[in-house]
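Now for one protein, fold included:
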Amino acid sequence: MKSLKTFTRGGVHPEENKFSENAAIEALPLPKQAVIPLGQNLGVPSKPIVKKGDEVKVGQLIAKGEAFISANLHSPVSGKVVKIDDAIDSSGYRRQAIFVDVIDDVWDDSIDTSPTIVRQISLSKQEIIQRIKECGIVGLGGATFPTHVKLMVPDGKKAEYLIINGVECEPYLTSDHRVMLEKGEEMLIGVKILMKALEVEKAVIGIENNKPDAIRHLTELSQAYTGIMVQALKVKYPQGGEKQLIKATVNREVPSGKLPIEVGCVVSNVGTALAVYDAVQKNKPLIERVVTVTGKSVRKPSNFMVRIGTPVTELIAAAQGLPENTGKVINGGPMMGKALTSIDVPITKGSSGILIMKSEDSRRPAPKPCIRCSKCTEVCPMGLEPFLLAKLAKLAIYDKAENEKIMDCIECGSCQFTCPSQLPLLDFLRLGKQRVGLLIRTRK
């Protein structure tokens, strides 16, 4: 049998724990109140265009992304704006949000709510990019980078491949898997729309081999769509990283400090492709997404279609409640996710999963001295020296950390996962990246 493709440098094999992989997507009931944070993209927060007392419909524009890297926000519910105030977000900080009391479920008249699949792509390249911008589409793989910006290829560059990330290598999470199984055709039309916007003739959908049903399903469906190929990949974390996925699928290496377009590639997530289909073919803004709720003690591991702004508490209740032995609730997966300070925080465009960890699994063991075993270096998919970078960050030697390419770190956590001394390497790497990034912006 032919060996499966994968990336070549580093990587680890955590337990998969895909408990919710067979749980079909369920529509979560509407919340009584939606809290819609203004900062839901990797860029400048949106500016509200509604005020207290305004009545809004589902899909109505409520905040504009006015900066170059920003994204529009639309109301995920219909009801009345009760206030624009600070709310605790998933990082534990208080940030501005729009609070809407839900009255009913009336949608904006411009949105096509019919279940009919629209296959004919009638918009031009520029019209597609404009529609995606208007509908507030961002990357749903976690980074939340505005999709319309990604589609604006810089002068002098040319896209050759669209790479679709169906890897979902983060343990526990299954939202992308269910999208591929249940919304496969809509997703493929979204891929064709992205191909038209980028003017590329080739798209590769990378899916790890632990999802054979998704590979079979999309391989069969893609026969009707010229230029789209499904590529089965060996299971290895963090294959969902842009640079790792490009290496695995088309064997190109993105240089240090550069973007995928440098090697003729643009990467998008399967959930993003579905959102692009909804925006371009149905004029539906990004007001809901699929979120996994899972964990070893969770009574009903689930995948929910959730309106943005719904409190995490309601997802947990729908999964039959918080287990008694809960130690932490993680926003995302166990490798790259972050612990929530409160489960009252709202679901955002970047929320892919809620992981409920047992108390004994959530405790960090006391760190021991580094034994210079080099395991962290061996597993780093970016070829970095995590032990050195973490030490430089700890000692606030940020100029040297920059020279040692700390900004190339993708925060995958492979180093911390494999460290026999249980050192909090990822914590220091994140701190170092934050401080070095600030230095770089200050110089500019």
In short: Residues 1-10+18-27+111-363 form a domain with the Rossmann fold fold (CATH 3.40.50.11540).
